[in-house]
Amino acid sequence: MSEVAIDRIFPLPAEEGIGDARIAESYSAGAGSPWLRVNFVSSIDGAATRQGLSGGLSDDADHRVFDLLRRLCDVVLVGAGTVRAEGYGAMRVDQVSQRARREAGMTAHPVFAIVSASLDLDPASPIFRDAPERPIIVTTELSRHDTREALAEVADVVVCGEERVEPARLVAGLVERGLRRIHCEGGPHLFGDLIAAGVVDELCLTVSPTLEAGVASRISAGAAPILPIGMRLAHVLQADDTLLLRYVKRA
Ligand SMILES: NC(=O)c1ccc[n+]([C@@H]2O[C@H](COP(=O)([O-])OP(=O)(O)OC[C@H]3O[C@@H](n4cnc5c(N)ncnc54)[C@H](OP(=O)(O)O)[C@@H]3O)[C@@H](O)[C@H]2O)c1
């Protein structure tokens, strides 16, 4: 099957039909260390889901970049709501990505880190059973001790806050483990908390060319930060009518 063509239309000069290496370069430009990147897809009118899932908004170009971003990170960070809704399995990348990662001196697969206060996660699920790297569960002091112990059999359980996971502690905890390239795949409530805490360095946003209307959530939810956070447009990729935007935090 031929790969979907992706053009880079900003910054100029534009480049047509760029390959994975060039796309990866574009996503790596100017990234600091540590670095927290967030990736979402949204319809033009701001829906983050169709029928409760992000999949309906996604297309081949979005899948291609989604996979590439996993290739570039040390850890994939996801809120438990998204893990449950989207039915995540073990965090594995394909063979091409495994090879690229090994050549870059990384582990074959990124670590999977899940944020949860309720710990409503099944220790027997493939997330843990088939994990190539031991997952991390980031939780709170108030989470149930018996559940925590059961999950500690299959994952590293890290406490980063009393009632809610505090984003600054979460990031520090991952960095302490050498996981400096943090890639968050959502969802909206986790993203809202990360924004409010001022720890987001980058947002990658796929704009899917549909109007959805309805009551779907936006890509962020929950408490707002005291001031809006200004972002700078770092690149724009285009595949047919889909745009793949990369915004980084203003210095
Ligand atoms: N468009 C996209 O690209 C995209 C991406 C991701 C998700 N989604 C969609 O978003 C929907 C899920 O939304 P959501 O807002 O529920 O997702 P979410 O942010 O992944 O999940 C919320 C849950 O994550 C945990 N959590 C998040 N922040 C926390 C914190 N600071 N401290 C403690 N726990 C925290 C809690 O889990 P517990 O309940 O276990 O305590 C919370 O209930 C799904 O429909 C999914 O398809 C869309």
TrEMBL record:
Q: Which SUPFAM superfamilies match?
A: Dihydrofolate reductase-like (SSF53597)
Q: Which Gene3D superfamilies match?
A: Dihydrofolate Reductase, subunit A
Q: Which InterPro entries match?
A: DHFR-like_dom_sf, RibDG_C, Riboflavin_Biosynth_HTPR
The protein's UniProt keywords, in alphabetical order, are: NADP, Oxidoreductase
Recorded metabolic or biological pathway in which this protein acts: Cofactor biosynthesis; riboflavin biosynthesis
Q: What positions does the domain Bacterial bifunctional deaminase-reductase C-terminal occupy?
A: 34-241
**Is Metal-binding given among the entry's keywords?**
no
Any single GO molecular-function term of the entry would be: 5-amino-6-(5-phosphoribosylamino)uracil reductase activity
Alphabetically, which GO biological process terms does the record hold?
A: riboflavin biosynthetic process
Q: What protein does this entry describe?
A: Pyrimidine reductase family protein
Native organism is Leifsonia shinshuensis
